[in-house]
What we know:
There is one protein chain. The protein is α+β, with helices and mostly antiparallel strands. It has helices at about 5-30, 40-55, 70-80, 80-100, 110-135, 145-170, 175-195, 195-205, 210-255, 260-275, 315-325, 370-395, 405-420, 435-445, 445-460, 485-500, 535-550, and strands at about 60, 65, 280-285, 295-300, 305-315, 330, 340-350, 350-360, 425-435, 470-475, 475-480, 505, 515, 520-525, 555-560, 565-570. Strands 5-4-3-8-7-6 form a six-stranded antiparallel sheet. β7 and β8 (about 350-360) form a beta hairpin. α2 (about 40-55) crosses α4 (about 80-100), α3 (about 70-80) packs parallel to α8 (about 195-205) and α6 (about 145-170) crosses α8 (about 195-205). It is elongated.
Amino acid sequence: xxxxxxxxLAFTLLVGVIGWGALVAWTLAAPSTAAPHLGPxxxxxxxxxxxxxxxMAFRIVPDSVLSLDTGFHVAASAALGPLAAGQLVAFALxxxxxxxxxGARHRRGGERFAYVLYFGGLTGALVAWSAWxxxxxxxxxxxxxxxxxxxAIGGVLRVVHNAFQGVRQALGGxxxxxxxxxxxxxxxxxxxxxxxxxxxxxxxxxxxxxxGFALLAGTYVLINLVFNRLSRTSHALRARVRExxxxxxxxxxxxxxxxxxxxxxxxxxxxxxxIPSAETMALVHRGAEREVDRFVVDSYDGDRDEFQRMRIGRxxxxxxxxxxxxxxxxxxxxxDGVRSWLGVPIFLxxxxxxxxxxxxxxxxxxxxxxxxxxxxxxxxxxxxxxxxHLYEMAMVDGLTGxxxxxxxxxxxxxxxxxxxxxxTPFAVVMMDIDDFKRLNDTHGHLAGDRxxxxxxxxxxxxxxxxxxxxxxxxxxxxxxxxRTELVxxxxxAERVRVALADHRVATGDDGPVLAVTASFGIAAFPESGAQTxxxxxxxxxxxxxxxxxxxxxxxxxxxxDDSGGHTALTAN
Length: 572
């Protein structure tokens, strides 16, 4: 939970100080009026009822709870007098706020102190002021007068208290109309409905019918208990409906995500939408390569709208604990500023094949409900991951782990459409291993397979997460580089070329160690002037042909000059 805005915190502290100051000043100025009828039994009954109603408070909006205690505050003011009631209410609510906020880990020390002052000081001062404003309690000769006084004090108290709460909510960034609609008006209706009961409490108290007074006070507590249970049941039902809606939306999104990058994006956004307290998430899985001892971590930062990919060992850190124990895990105060960490296992065919993780920079950010929802999401993610892996098995070359040509053809059409719609460039790189036929003839096809696998590994290591690499045919590879202009594509291809030239391929225990190079041809869209995918690939092929004819182990560019003719440039 984020820190309170400074203006709201200052207002909370100031109002609390003023409220307590007013009570203390009144007590010092007129000590004889502090508690004219307040004995220990009476004090205990009023205090217990007020505390009991606070314990049964229920949440109607985030960061705010409602307790139906106004009626008993008013009853205390009509029965005991303004100052005595104000002191009693301030004392009771201070105890309640201390219990609530001192242990609240998501609140900082200054915020907790301000809350304690505010809840006790403001409400106690308003109870005393409202009773004083309506008039002295000495004129209560009839039940009608008692009822009028209780209703008048209750009305004034609720209106003024809601005015302070409205200002405080507005300083926190909440619209006043939302406060009135969801909190002030419903709360006022519920509180005012119990004021007739408060009037009966006062009548019994003044009539010294203490048994009836105590029984009615107990009834007041039971009414609060009923409201509390109804509110909790309603909240649980609304939460469950929300969970089902989220799971339905997520299921439909995942069902249409067969490609792993699209799946990761869908999982990331739906997870953060489902669990608002999460700031970042991570999908930990085995990836397209299905490595046995390593995981791919696709993380998403919701604040920055940024994806990152890394690899970790299967037994590393908190993820390793989740995999080993095959149970959800919640941790606090992790490295890198993570105060809350929650991970649940992803099961495929009975085995833990990944972990779904949410993180927050706030302590105690995740609830049991969040954990249950994350586990439900993990079940859907597991099915989607299996579908994505099956799809990749059909779209991935078994030898190199690169995509097959059919997938490349579909992706290049998508990139052309995206480029035309949004005006973003992209580049195609055609890559051919130099002298591969002679290598096969000299060292055999097994050595050739090793070379292809090593080359594919180097290509994948040098690529970004959004790039696509495919085995186009034989020893020829094709790369799609989204959002990449011609010069940037040159730099990326050059990195691959250098990494490959520095690499040595071991062909076996007794076989030779081979030096392998490759030639590259690049064409960009729309810079090359190509109108179709076929034309774009053909122009990248022409640049590749020039690289082969110019000595191999080089990168050549194809671009359109200002006059509309086409020229190939060489880059070493």
